Amino acid sequence: MHLAARLLLVGGGAAIIALTLLSTIRSTILPRGVSDWLTRWVARSVRTGFRAAASRRDTFEGRDRVMAMFGPVQLMTLLTVWLGLILGAYTMVYLGLVTSSPLRALELSGSSLTTLGTSSTPQGAGSLLTYTEAGLGLLVITLLITYLPSIYQSFSRRENGVGLLAVRAGSPPTATEMLIRFHRINEPGSRFKELWQSWESWFTDVEETHSTFPILAYFRSPKPQQSWVTAAGTVLDTAAMWVSAVPHDNDPDAQLTLRAGFLCLRRIAEVFGIAFDPDPAPDDPVSVSRSEFDEALTELERAGITITERDAAWQAWRGWRVNYDTVLLELARLVEAPLAPWTSDRSPVGGRQRRADIRRPVGTAGSRRGGRRGLRRLSGDGR
Questions:
Q1: 108 SS3 class
Q2: CA 223, CA 207: separation in Å to the nearest integer?
Q3: First vs last Cα of the chain: how many Å apart?
Q4: How many CB atoms lie under 10 A from the CB of residue 68?
């Protein structure tokens, strides 16, 4: 084999090893959400197959059972790809430095990566390569083993909040249901204070964990009708409605929860490459129409809740909603969230989800333009 070809094999193999190691570090060690092309490619490839399989199911429950395996399978596929790239890269290096036989080079690489020691080479450079490959293979597997407990601890904390929300907001969860239930148990103000504080912490935790470990976004809730995305949307819509439409003393905790919530969704959206406007106008259209909002206010009034002037309430509520409208709907589409009013009911996947599947009608969706605009910074009036 010519010297130029050997150098090309060694250089190409070394580059693949470096890129694979970099992808592993970004995905398992680096404590921040950094976009990695290899992880994105694996996720898209696996998601395409799962969506094709799920599309053949007639019910959401059937599709949910298929998609529930997506997160774990993606994780195992990523490990397989990492090890496969290391195997192929070292095979190239062995071809360039140790042997001219592709079969022999593959045998050396496989023996070293699996630490079986079934094949060896007397050459000093070859022996050093086998040691480095064995160490790198063990490092990748060890990183994944330590990675899994972190993922499931974060998943458990997230789902604890999602499960508790079902008690407060129904299934599927809605902002009106939460407000009505709190009104019926009296003293909603003091109880909401505790709720806002706990969900501010929840949003902060989800922002950190789901940007550090993006694969967590695809891990579905144990119950098919629950989702971290619809839970986040319901809490934000409830807080926005409480601030804008229900008379009460100033509640900074609700406003802080709103800010923590849309910052959380925006950060996760950035990790997944979802585009949004960081500073939309407060009067930009949103995906919830005025008629839907009025229906919600009417439902609250029937339950005995006093409502502020409707035009002012709509303007204030829309000023909050525009902060998270885009990212909420796009994340619901990304994770194929179960149908829930004002979130996934207007973010269908493959045309298979229908509003008729929701037990409570919510009217017709408004313009999506406001959703495309994105998030607005918090101002003094809460818009």
A1: helix
A2: 22
A3: 69
A4: 18
SS3 379: coil
Minimal CA–CA distance to 274: which of 285, 283, 265? 265
At residue 219, the 3 state secondary structure works out as: coil
Q: What is the rounded CA–CA span in Å between residue 331 and residue 350?
A: 15
| pLDDT per residue as tens digits for the range 33-47 | 666 788 888 988 998
CA Rg value for the chain: 26
Q: Tell me the two tokens of residue 90.
A: 């070292």
Which pTM was predicted?
0.80
**70 exposed, middle or buried (CB, 10 Å; 0-12, 13-18, 19+)?**
buried
Residue 368, SS3? coil
Q: Contact 229/335 with Cβ under 8 angstroms?
A: yes
Angle between helices 60-67 and 37-54 (to 10 degrees): 150
d(CA 233, CA 253): 17
State the Cα–Cα distance between residues 135 and 70, nearest whole angstrom.
30
DSSP of 240-283:
HHHHHHS--S--HHHHHHHHHHHHHHHHHHHHTT---BSS--TT
Q: Low-confidence residues of the chain, pLDDT below 70?
A: 1, 31-35, 116-126, 187-190, 347-383
DSSP string, 283-296: TS--SB-HHHHHHH
For 207, half-sphere exposure in the C-beta direction (CA atoms, 13 angstrom radius) is 17
- Among candidates 383, 266, 245, which has minimal Cα distance to 320? 383
pLDDT in tens, 318-333: 999 999 999 999 999 9
Bridge partner list, 374: 277
Residue that is written with structure tokens 């029937």 in the block: 302
Which class for 289: exposed (0-12), middle (13-18), buried (19 or more C-beta within 10 A)?
A: middle
